Amino acid sequence: MIPAVALPVFGPALPEIILSLGALVLVLVGAIQGERSTRLVNWLALGLLLAALVAVLMLPSGRATTFGDAFVVDGFAKFMKVLALIGSGAAIVMSTDYMRREGIDRFEYGILIVLSTLGMMVMISANDLIALYLGLELQSLAAYVIASFHRDNLRSTEAGLKYFVLGALSSGMLLYGASLVYGFTGTVSFPGIAATLKGTPGIGIILGIVFVAAGIAFKISAAPFHMWTPDVYEGAPTPVTAFFASAPKMAAMALAVRIFVGAFPGILAQWQQIIVFISIVSMAIGSFAAIGQRNIKRLMAYSSIGNVGYALIGLAAGTAAGVQGVVVYMAIYLAMTLGAFAVILAMRRGQAMFEDIEDLSGAARTHPVMAFCLAAMLFSLAGIPPLAGFFAKFYVFAAAIEARLVALAVIGVVTSVIGAYYYIRIVKVMYFDEPRGAFEPMDVNLRWVLGITSAFVLLFWLPGIPSRVLAAAGAAARSLF
C-alpha cells in the first residue's frame, strides 16, 4: 500500500486549479479583445497546459486525497495526467495553421481544449462516483462544442449533434449504473464500495456494473458502443479528430482502470467477463470494419476502436501487470496517433484538404520523409517489431497469459494480423502507386510533432528506453493495488 502524503488542503488539485483559474482569465481576454486575441489565447492555453504539466510532475510521490477523499492523486493519476496534457497540448499546436486556413480561427477553441482537459484530469483522479460523473460531463460538454466547431460545415455540425445525442444517452446509462451501485452498497466512495463488495454480488450490483461499463465503453469508443466514432472522426475538423483520438482516450481509459480496479477488486470474476466481451468485440470490429474504408479519418476511427480493445486486454487481467500493460499501451498509442494525424493534417493542396487514402498515392516519391514517418506509424499500429507498437501489444498479451486469459490473447494476436492488412494497404499506396501530385510543405508545428513521435516510435527498442517506460508504468500500476 502506498503511504498517504501530507499536503495543503487543495494541494493535490493544484494542476486542476491552475487550469480552471486560467480558463477564466482566457475567457476575459477573449471577451475584451474579441477575435484579435485568438492567437494570443491559443498560446496562453498551451502555456496553461504546460504549467499544469509542471505542477503534476512536482507533486510529491505517494498517495494524497482531498475534497473529502473524492479526489485522489497517486502514481497512476500522475502518469495518465501527463499523457492527457501532452495530447491536449499537441492538439493546440497542430491546429493553428489548419484553423487559420479554414477560417475558423476563434479564441474559444483554446479555452474549450483547456476546459475539456480539466474534466479529463478530474476523471483520472476521481475516487468516488460523483467526482467521476462531474469530470466526465465537464470533459464531454466541451468536446460536444469542439466537434461542431466548424459551424458552417454540414458534416461538422452533424458530427457535433450525433456526439451530443449519443453522449447524453451514454451519460444516462452511466448515471443509472452508478445509482444502482450506490443503492446496493450505501456509498459512492470507491474504497467504500470495494470494502462492501465481497464474495458473490447480487443481481442489482451486476446490473449496475453493466450500465457503468456501457457508459465508459462509449467514452473510450469501445464496441458495441462505438457507433458515434466513425461519423464524428470524419465530420469534425481534423485537429479536433486528432484531439479526440488522443487526450480523451487517455482519461477515459484511466477512468475505466480506476473504477474497476479501485471499486470492484473483490468481484473480479464478474466484471472481468464484461471487459473480455467488450475487448473481443472491439478488436473484431476494429479489424474487419476498417478493411473497406476509403477515408483515412474513418479508418483511424476503426483503428482507435481496435486499439481500445487491445488495451482492455490488460484491464481484463485485473492484475498490476495488466494495468502496467494498459499504461504502456496508452503511452505508445498516444505517440502513434499524434504522428499519424500530423501527416493527415499535411494532406493539403492549395486551399483543399484531402482525406481519401488514394490521395496518398506515390507520396514516397513526392514526400519521402513524410511517407517514411507515416509508414513507421502504420507498421507500429499493426504491432510489427521492433517498433513501439509491438512492445505495446506484447505487454498486454503477456499480462493476459499470466492471468490465464490465453484465449483472449490468441484472439488479440489473430485480429492484429487481420488489422495489419489495412495498415499495409496504405503503405502500398504510398510506395507503389503513381503520384497524384505533391502536397504543400508541412507546417513547422506539424514537423515538430511528427519528428518527436517518429523518433519515439522508431527508437523505442534501443537499450534502456523500454525498461524505463516499463518501470514508470509499473510504479503507476502498483499505486492502485
Explain the overall architecture.
With 481 residues, the protein is mostly helical. It is built from 20 helices and 4 strands. The chain has helices at 14-33, 38-58, 75-102, 108-125, 129-147, 154-185, 190-196, 203-219, 229-235, 238-245, 247-263, 268-288, 296-317, 320-345, 363-366, 368-381, 388-402, 406-432, 444-459, 465-478; strands spanning 64-66, 71-73, 348-349, 352-353. The strands form 2 sheets. It has a two-stranded antiparallel ribbon with strand order 1-2. The chain has a two-stranded antiparallel sheet with strand order 3-4. Strand 3 and strand 4 (352-353) form a beta hairpin. Helix 9 (229-235) runs antiparallel to helix 10. The termini are close together.
Task: Set out the fold topology.
Layout: H1 14-33, H2 38-58, E1 64-66, E2 71-73, H3 75-102, H4 108-125, H5 129-147, H6 154-185, H7 190-196, H8 203-219, H9 229-235, H10 238-245, H11 247-263, H12 268-288, H13 296-317, H14 320-345, E3 348-349, E4 352-353, H15 363-366, H16 368-381, H17 388-402, H18 406-432, H19 444-459, H20 465-478
Antiparallel strand pairs: 1-2, 3-4
List key phrases describing it.
481 residues; 4 strands; mainly alpha; 20 helices; two-stranded antiparallel sheet
Shape, per Cα inertia axes: globular
State the major sheet.
2 strands, antiparallel
- Strand % is under 5%
Mean pLDDT: 88
Helix content: over 70%
Given helix and strand content, the structural type is mainly alpha
Through-space gap between termini: 7 Å
